[in-house]
Each structure stands twice: as C-alpha cells, then as structure tokens.
Amino acid sequence: MVLVTFPEGPPTKQSPRWKGPWKISKIVSPWRSEIVNLDGHDAEIVGNDRLRTVVLREQEGELLKVQSRDNDEWEVDRIVSHMYGSKKPIRFKVKWKGFEDKENSYITWKEAKKLSEAMEDYLRRNPNLKKK
Fold first, then answer.
1. Which of 4, 70, 82, 92 has CA 20 to 30 A from 76's CA?
2. 8-40, pLDDT tens digit by residue?
3. How far apart are CA 89 and CA 63, in angstroms?
4. Is 81 in the same domain as 119?
5. pTM for this structure?
6. What is each CA distance from 101 to 30, 71, 78, 93, 95, in whole angstroms?
7. Angle, CA of 90, 71 and 25, to the nearest 5°
C-alpha cells in the first residue's frame, strides 16, 4: 500500500498532504508507477517521488472509509439546524457520519437539497421551514 501526494500540493488548507491508501498495479518505468485506489475505479500514473509506502493494520472495509475521506466523500448523518444570513441564502448545519459534533459544518441550500432523506427528515421536524 502507498500514499500519494497531490501534484501541486493539497487543494485546500484543510486537505491532508497525502491521499490514499492506493495499491501499485504496475511499474511503468524506474521513475513512474501506476496506482489504483482500493475499489479499483481510479488509476493514475505518478512519479515514484510522490509515493510513500505504508504498512496498514486495518481491515479493508476500514481502509475504504479512510480512502473516501481523502476523496472528499463524506456521508451526512443528519441536518442539525439552519440559519439565514443577511446577505447569504439559507444554510444548513450538518452532522457528518463518523465525526464528532465539533466537526459539524454548514452547507448551502444547493448542497442540502441533494440530501433527500436527511432533508425530508429535517423538514418533518421543522414544518415551518417549508412555508418560507
């Protein structure tokens, strides 16, 4: 298993420096390798200088969870609250599955409306919101 750095640094300040884990699927040259993510959907050819070998002691299911965090794929547990800003549209505070409450964060209406199950549940608990 290997971790790989982003080619031009992490996309945001809060992004991890390394993403993965990945598997080396093929040595392309002495300087480059083809790597695939654990679900086998993504493959990249990268310079070996961007790779770091790691020994992992977790089950493969747990590794897929780790990898999904690296791909910015977080699952919403529920919508906790909402707020109206003076200049911004309504935003929703979400609880992320597998994270503590201190990691809750706000998302836009555009993002929240894609969360059909969580949004339906939130609207059932907050019927006055439908009228606004």
1. 4
2. 777 776 677 888 788 889 888 888 999 998 777
3. 37
4. yes
5. 0.47
6. 46, 21, 11, 11, 6
7. 165
